[in-house]
């Protein structure tokens, strides 16, 4: 991806929703397809690119991920994998959700996938009540409706597996 | 063609696959239709907005929420962060009460648009994804939009093969996508399941699956793909 850039030392400024500015090397920013498209279509003439949906804390995390992945050579896949798992380790759910939203918005597929995987791992094998608590999902079924859903789908709940 | 492990590609859909595979998540519509051209980034931006808003609106309008449960949330600052529309930086001195006023109910995963929730579900084993329908009404039909269906019987001496076959049948019956990416089934094939497997392969063909993967390792009986598949 980086090979298409003429000048790797170019920098651009990203502005978070809460007004913090981040100076980013262009090859790092290009990890984001959104930014890449903006740069390709010359929308980048503005001095500062605003990212109105991403707060500074999340943007800092996103850019940390992008920098690591932009700087690592492809031969260091193992190193990147361990970076990825460390990156999300101990991350709280709020930060993780913001990260998923930011990765989706900025179109950073690798980050989107590892964050979604992490959320899925959290749901997996947990009883529903626990999942609801973890994610603060409000159960809007009435007890009768919930029983009906379970009953109608007994094949999923009591059959396999 | 008597093999125990097939991996067939539906040639009809193969030329489409190049277009569809790389769609960003945001562009994947709930119906699973990927006919939308992917070009400008605006379309991605839109996606995360509507359901995000509707999610929080729904929360705001819920009078039944127990206020104490919100106050008990152990990580208040993350909850604040979860609301992307809130442009204020999270403030550590902020009390739970103030935060509750701004964000009356905390439903972290509801803040994610359906397209992203589906992406999360796609990383779950299918049986876990199917079971999420009991979480809340929003989740009831979410899983039916999964475009990659991978059923694995696995190594389960305690489980009945016919229960698994029924599980696959019923899951496919409720699949709500006009087009799927993948259908994969791994089981110990038995000739009694032949009519079911035939239907699954036809399901994959009808849904324009880019990948059909049948893994019948260890099966006692051979399985032949229906001739119908080749005439597509």
Automatic annotation (TrEMBL), chain A:
Pathway: Protein modification; protein ubiquitination. It comes from the Eukaryota. CDD domains: BTB_POZ_SKP1. SMART domains: Skp1. Keywords: Ubl conjugation pathway. Part of a SCF (SKP1-cullin-F-box) protein ligase complex. Belongs to the SKP1 family. This is SKP1-like protein. It comes from Rhododendron griersonianum.
UniProtKB/TrEMBL annotation, chain B:
It comes from the Eukaryota. Residues 78-91 have a biased composition (Acidic residues). CDD domains: F-box_AtFBL13-like (cd22160). Residues 1-10 have a biased composition (Low complexity). Residues 20-31 have a biased composition (Basic and acidic residues). Coiled coil: none annotated. Residues 106-142 form the F-box domain. Residues 48-62 have a biased composition (Polar residues). Residues 1-101 are annotated as: Disordered. This is F-box domain-containing protein. Pfam families: F-box.
